[in-house]
Every structure is written in C-alpha cells, then in structure tokens.
Task: structure prediction
Amino acid sequence: MSLLLLLALSGVEGLVQDAELFEKKIRPVLHARCVACHGPEKQKAGLRVDSRSALLGGGDSGPALVPGAADRSLLMKALRQGEMPPPKSGPRLGDDVLRDLEAWINAGAPYPGGAEPPPKKHWAFEPLSDPPVPAGGHPVDAFLALAKAAPPADRRTLIRRATYDLTGLPPSAEDVDAFLAGGDFAKVVDRLLASPAYGEKWGRKWLDLVRYADTAGENSDFPAPHAWRYRNYVIGAFNRDLPYDQFVREQVAGDLLPEPSAEQITATGYLAIARRFGHDTDKDMHLTHEDVIDTLGKSILGLTLGCARCHNHKYDPVTARDYYALYGIFASTRFPFPGCEAKQAPRDLVPLRPGEVAYAVAEGKPADARFHARGEPEQLGDAVPRRNLEILGGEILADPGKSGRLELARWLTAPKNPLTARVLVNRVWLGHFGRGLVATPSDFGTRGAPPTHPALLDYLARRFIDAGWSVKALHRLILESAAYQRASEGDVDVPYARFARRRLDAEEIRDALLAAGGELDLSPGAGHPFPPEPWKFTQHAPFKAVYESKRRSVYLMTQRIQRHPFLALFDGPDTNASTARRDTSTVPTQALYFLNDPFFHARSEGLARRLLALPAAERVAAAHRACFQRPPAAAEEASARAFLAAYGAPEPAAWSAYARTLLGSNEFLYLD
Result:
C-alpha cells in the first residue's frame, strides 16, 4: 500500500476516533454542565461553548481554547482550578472528565455537528447488490482488476501464511514437506479449517470485538469465574461453522429459542460480559446497558449506536429514541451480578446442568424505558416503545410482555438488513489481508471510510449468505484467489498487488514460542484458579492476578482493571472496549523483552533441550525448521557453528543463547 493511501486511511480512522471521543465524552459534559450559562440563552463573561468557533472566539478573558495545547487553554485552567462549573451548580468535574477534556483539546478540539440532519441515503444502508463477475479468472481477482501484480508466493511462504492465518500456529515440518512435494493448496485449507486450532484463532477475533474479559470491570474488578464458558462457546461455534446468522441470534437471545440447549443459553454471555461500573454496579446499570448497545452496534452492524445516548446521532440516521428503544430491550433483561465492593456476593447466574451455571442473561421484567434527557438517568422523559432501529425498519415488538431480545436477534439477521453480512465479510477480509475493503471495520456510517471495492464487498456478502452464512466457505473463497497467494515482495505499490507483510499478533507470538520447544499444551482451557469466595475486593485493594499457563493464549485469564503483561506489550486487545483492529507498535520494551524476560528465556531453554536430544549434526537444521519452517542456508549453518564454538559456555547455555537469536528474529516474528 502506498504511503499516501496509508496516511489517508489512518486519517479517516483518526477523524472517527476524535468524533467518537467528542460525542461520547465531551458534548454531554458541555451540555449538562456548561451550556445553561454559556449557550444561546445566556453568555456569562461573554462566553459560549456550544460551537467550536464560539470557544475559539472566547469571552471577556480571551479565547477559551488553544487547539492542540490543553495546558495553554483558559477553559482547562478554569476547570482544573474549580472556577468552572461554579461550585453552586454542582460538584467539581472528576479527574476522568478532566482527562477526557484535555485529550480532546490536545487532539485539536474537534467539534463536529451541524444543522443538517444525517443523510438516510448512504451506501451501507442500501440493499445488497448482486453484481455480475467481470471476466478475468477467480471472482476476487476479477473484481480487483489489477493491471500489474507481484508473482505468486513460494510454496513454503504460502503454507506458513495460510497456517498462521487460519490457526494462529506455525505449520509442522511434516505439513510443510508434504506441501512442498506437490500437495494441493485447497486440501491444505480444508485441513486447517477442520483443525480445532481454527476456532481458537478466529474465535479470538470475535472475542476482541465483544471486549471479552474474565472480570467485571467495576472499581474492584471482581472476577467472573464462569465467563470462560462463553469464550469456549465462541471457539466451538467457529469450529462447527455455525451459520453466522444463527451465531448472532444465539448470542442475543439463545435462551429464548425453542427448547434452548445449555450451549445456546451460554451464548448470551455476549451480553452478560458487558462491563460493570462504579462502586455499586446496580446503581450504574445504565452505563452497562450503554456498553451493550455500543458493542452490539459496532460488532454486528458496524454502527456507533452509543453516540445516540445523549442526542440524535450527528452523522448517521440513528436517533436518541432509537437508542432508548434498544435500551428498553436490555433494561427488560436480567444480567448476572458478579459482585462489587458494595455488594460482594454474586447472584443471578443461570443454571445449566446440576452443579453448573453460566454467566448468561435471562428475561427480566419487561417494560419500555423512559427517555434520558442528555443521557442522564435522573432526567427522565416519556417512555420509548421497544422497537427496531428506524433505518432497519422500525418494527415494534409483537409481544411487549417479553423483553424483545428474540425479535431484536431476528431483526439483526433479517434478509433486508444489509449491514450484518457486509460487516462480517469485511472483517474476514481484514483478517486475511490486514486491511478491510472498508478501512473502518466497526463504522460503516457516514463518517467511516467508503469501500475501496464496493462491488467486491457486495459480491462476497451475497455469496456468504447464499452459502448459508458459512464463514468457512468465505475463507475458502478468499484463499483461493491469486490476490491472497501473491508474494509480499515486488515493485508494485497498489493495494492487493502484493501481500502485506505483517507481524504476528500477541497470541501468535506467545503460542509460537511455546510450540518451538514442543511445550505448547493444545488441550482446551476452562476456568481459572481465582481465589476462593467470599471475596473482599475494594477499589483500594482490587482483584489483580496473572496465571501462568502453557495452553494457547486465547485461554489466558484477562481482566479489565489491568491488562495481561504479555498481551499488553504486543498490542493485544482492549478488554474495556470493542477492538475492531489491533494496532502494531514497535517500542523499546519489546526488544528488551527478547533480551530479559523469564518467559522468553524459558522458551529458549525448552527449544535448546529439544535440540540437544538430537544428534549434533542435525541440530542447526532442526532449529531452523522449528522456528522458520525451512532448512538453513549453508552460510547460516556455518554462522551457527561459529557462534556455538565461540560462546564459551556449556552446551545447554550455548544452545539456549543460539535459540534466543532465532526466536527473537524478524523471520520468526513476521509473516510474508
């Protein structure tokens, strides 16, 4: 991809993030605490805060904002000193609010919005088309229509790429040898899709979207010991190739399906794992409901529904009444209570089998929610009937005596809804190419990026639905293309003309380190060794733990108040918010990890033990095959022997040091 295009796409994502920060964190504060005295009706000290131009113009003391410089902005000085809002108007703004305002100003103080209503006609809201395939080979390649492209990747590169992409693990030496001897690539793909490792890899991608964690996220971060059942449900659903529309329905309303199975009840962990807030989480459930609506909008529909909590969405045709129509559905749902500082005993877990419970939801007391003026639950308006989003049809509940989750699940997967299939197809494409056909995978709204290849996106979405919403069939279709099988080298700088090289993600790095020494435990994980109940965690002594394991990284215990140290270092997901695409950072602490970390040194020693069990003449070749899935070149063999001879230490230490040079190398950490 050209530098210009990369900058353009990063710019689009930056605008989306800045707008979301403003709509969710800044505008509600300005309207709730400032506009009454500094708005259209009153302008104390000559200041208005209801537009960017007004803030830049300032009041009697001068400009209120210096975009990009919070420390030089009069607004921040007044807020920090407690001069604004005036003490008689209410409590001072909290430190978290001040940090948000500071981040907003330092980002340039974007103040989006205008008088024009959001457009209802937008490519993502239009019905799926069924474009004819242009002439030119495989459908994906025909739609891409590249005039010039890199040559095909060599077979070793291709099997390594496909194995990591589909399973998150390196290929075995035997699998590489069989493919190099003339194995059929389509059969390789089928074998990888049939592996249990496939669900662990692609289930992890879904867990990123739903901000999965094993703790609740309130100020004490109480454990959720049974959340793992939902994690394993997701992994199993991908392995079984559960039709995606059914997958969505089970997660939103699995307990309401006819004769629901234990697995379908467990699926509603999608809702149950929502973050809890505050000291007494029962008092802040409106924030949990917001978290559910925001995550559902982003993960399934590619819409930022949370932006409509306080006012109509500024860019997309989603109203605040749409928001509270969905809010009523979730307020009519009983969520499990994991415990909190104020009330430490868990409750409302859902029975499955004798002695087994699920961290899942159930029907609550059905009722329409009342409108929250400016998003404040204390400022209640009229009741908003539970219904679908207007942009998707606006259907009301057929039976208001139930929560409405089952009808919502059906609306989300209805044939006339064009978003659900488009969003998922784009996510699978992103997972294989490192960039989506839509560069903003969780924002298909008007502030998101338009598709680079709209006909291809709709073609794939149509084929996806026609194949019974089969994610595995979609993988096969994409991986059969020449675009996927191209080399990463070449002098062409057009998207998809060559494969985009990428670093392994955090879980792939950790799993590959364990696999290199033959130490990876491939058995499925279950629960975690949390401290025995009753718990007495508080905001001053919250739950914090890291549990060591040699299982795959998808089974690691992850919590919300702190990130797992390895996953945080290598850009793992944010467990507090839906992660559509992970960043890839390069920081000094990553290099230091490969020099000093005890886990890395232990894995190097494991590989050394594995090599020392072999005849001396075979060790260097075995090391290269374990790490790079290829034999060493003659120069590499000679360099290795010279290193080992000069190291000046007993064999175990020397071979451990040599193993570290391989396990920390770019070839180990990157995928062509």
In short: The first helix runs from residue 3 to 33. The first strand starts at residue 333 and ends at 334. Residues 1-12 have pLDDT under 50 and may be disordered. The beta strands are 333-334, 350-353, 356-358, 362-363, 369-372, 380-384, 502-503, 670-671.
